[in-house]
Specification:
By secondary structure, the chain is of the alpha+beta class. It contains eleven helices and 15 strands. Bound molecules: adenosine-5'-diphosphate and magnesium ion. This is DNA mismatch repair protein MutL.
Length: 340
């Protein structure tokens, strides 16, 4: 077969670059929820409301009471590679915010209708920016930001076809908020669907938040984990072997407050259960790792769901031992903790 005729090399138009990049960041409504809640947390919000229509496909509105944005910066927030969170490589290596790539809002705005409404404390009123028209107008709201995302993938029907039923997309959105809620008991979360409040987690202690999100059964059937190994702190709860499940649907791992899905971490935890869990049974756990930011690279994946550790063996071992210690306690017949 003859080779296709050669076409000249061209630079892609900006819009298309954003749409391509959006493929990495925005898979479904839940990815949008995740990014918008990340932004609200980075803005120091203490109350976050997520309002959805049709499982998030028709609309996702995230409202926060964080620091807001001055009107003149709102157009920049939507530009690719524009961020207030890092300014240098040195800052990237020490980054403690959820975001830093300056990509999410630009990506989302390239595959959906986006509007921002924001008011910083020093502003007399809010401003609203419509991304499509670029129109900036005065608006009414308290200090903080609302981001509205409508008609996800309306211009990319091929991608829209990959969406599942509204009920499934809603479940993924709820899970995205749940992941944040577990890590941030100091922040109140509310989720609305079609005008109805479907989940609410009020500000609470860490222990209480785990109970509120995962239920009394998980607390009763798990043990606290709290270990310090070298530069690493590991805390949270590990499920008793008896409470293992058929599915890996209650496994939460965080690194410096960021939810991650990491084979190394999962394997470290799993290895602690080696002798007590048989077959395909899956342990339940919520584990938070804290490590100096320069010992972990969070910039390996566009959604930052994967991380790379400088010393991965050490982390693996530490995790294994922390969970083993927590479980050994229960094997020795420690009484279940009193409920508060
Ligand atoms: P990143 O989070 O990586 O900086 P984003 O595209 O998610 O990139 O956001 C771009 C910028 O818009 C942020 O750096 C921040 O300054 C601003 N921003 C976005 N969402 C909010 C919010 N909820 N409150 C205040 N500022 C926000
Ligand atoms: Mg962001």
């Amino acid at each position: 077969p003859s080779a296709p005729p050669r076409r000249p090399i061209r630079e892609l138009p900006d819009e298309l670059i954003s749409q391509i990049a959006a493929g990495e960041v925005v898979e479904r409504p839940a990815s949008v929820v995740r990014e918008l809640v990340d932004n609200a947390l980075d803005a120091g919000a203490t109350e976050i409301a997520v309002k959805l229509l049709a499982g998030g496909v028709r609309a996702i509105v995230v409202e926060d009471n964080g620091a807001g944005m001055p009107a003149e910066e709102m157009p920049l927030a939507l530009r690719r590679h524009a961020t207030s969170k890092i300014a240098s490589l040195a800052e990237l290596e020490q980054v403690e915010t959820m975001g830093f790539r300056g990509e999410a809002l630009a990506a989302i705005a390239s595959v959906a209708d986006v509007a921002l409404c924001s008011r910083p404390p020093e502003a007399a009123h809010a401003h609203r920016l419509d991304a499509r028209s670029g129109e900036l107008s005065p608006a009414a709201r308290g200090v903080g930001t609302s981001v509205e995302v409508r008609e996800l993938f309306f211009s990319t029907p091929a991608r829209r076809k990959f969406l599942k039923t509204d009920a499934t997309e809603l479940a993924h959105c709820l899970e995205a908020v749940r992941r944040h809620a577990l890590a941030r008991p100091d922040v109140g979360f509310a989720v609305w669907h079609e005008g109805k409040l479907i989940a609410q987690w009020r500000r609470a202690s860490g222990e209480q938040r785990l109970r509120d999100v995962l239920g009394d059964d998980f607390i009763a059937q798990s043990r606290p984990v709290d270990a310090r190994v070298g530069p690493l702190r590991i805390f949270g709860r590990a499920g008793l072997p008896d409470a293992a499940r058929a599915r890996a649907d209650l496994q939460y791992c965080y690194v410096n407050g960021r939810y991650v899905r990491d084979k190394l971490l999962a394997h470290g935890v799993r290895s602690a259960y080696e002798d007590v869990l048989h077959g395909a049974r899956q342990p339940s756990y919520v584990l938070f790792l804290e490590i100096a930011p320069d010992r972990v690279d969070v910039n390996v994946h566009p959604t930052k769901i994967e991380v790379r550790f400088r010393d991965s063996r050490e982390v693996h071992q530490a995790l294994r031992h922390a969970v083993e210690d927590a479980l050994a306690l229960s094997r020795a017949g420690a009484p279940p903790e009193a409920t508060p």
